[in-house]
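Final report, Chapter 2: Outcomes

The project's central promise was a pipeline that accepts a single protein chain and returns its three-dimensional structure in a standardized token representation, suitable for archiving and comparison. That pipeline is now operational. To close this chapter, we reproduce one record exactly as it appears in the project archive, with the input sequence first and the structure output second.
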Amino acid sequence: MNHKIRHEGIIDSIEEGCVHVRILQTSACAACKVAGYCNAAEAKEKIVDVFQTDSSALRVGDAVTVSASGDVAARALLWAFGFPFLLMIAVLVLVLWQTHDEGVAAISGLLSLIPYYGLLFLLRHRMRRKMAFVIE
């Protein structure tokens, strides 16, 4: 994936080493010209944290473009959805093979996600530096 994900935004606040940028995340329908007449249009405001060491030239209220590589997006999707799906299926099959009880296997598969997402939560600061937006 060589393309970049870009969003236009406005600097909301600046802390030491972190710039908070407010972006308007829109669905494909929200960009449509007739979106005002349709109930499917959706747009959400989000705050994106951009970690960079030099924020001296930036001011609150400045319009900026934040971007991330497609590789970062793919890695985030893999950690958020790909690995947990594989873990859940593996636990489901293993417990079903051991117990022959579909209910226990299903609950075990779902419960296996709790420690996985707990571990991701504990490692969020470490992962945040590798999977981050930058200001262009």
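Archive annotation: The CA atoms of residues 88 and 109 lie 5 Å apart.
This record, like all others produced under the grant, will remain available to the consortium after the project formally closes.
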